[in-house]
Design brief:
Elements (H helix, E strand, L loop, with lengths): L9 E4 L2 E5 H13 L2 H7 L4 H15 L4 E4 L7 E4 L1 H29 L1
Antiparallel strand pairs: 1-2, 3-4
Length: 111
């Protein structure tokens, strides 16, 4: 039997999730596609679910994650705000350092 460390990290505010792997993933997809609708489609999430997720996170965080461009000749779109980029970068750094620390502790205790 081989044991393996598994864990999930997220950030909460007042007991409510404000950021984690899911929001990070969808924001990366928005950054790549320029569209919340396309990002949602890629992960089989409805646009309304994605829209509500982003609105809820923005409310909890206290800042906008997306700059929205309403349709027009070429359609609408979404871009990340600088605050969203900063949150993503900080969470990725935190996740990487937590991973290293937890794996080191795991090896110390279980190996």
């Amino acid at each position: 039997m081989i044991l393996k460390l598994r864990y999930k990290l997220w950030i909460e505010k007042d007991g409510e999730k404000v950021f984690g792997d899911g929001p990070l993933d969808i924001l990366h997809r928005v950054e790549r596609t320029g569209s919340l609708r396309q990002a949602a489609e890629e992960i089989n999430m409805s646009y309304s679910q994605a829209w509500n997720l982003i609105k809820d996170l923005e409310k909890r965080l206290g800042f906008n994650l997306l700059k929205r461009k309403v349709g027009g000749e070429r359609g609408g779109g979404s871009q990340l705000t600088e605050q969203a980029r900063e949150m993503m970068m900080k969470f990725e750094i935190f996740h990487e350092e937590a991973d290293q620390s937890l794996n080191s502790l795991y090896k110390k205790i279980f190996k």
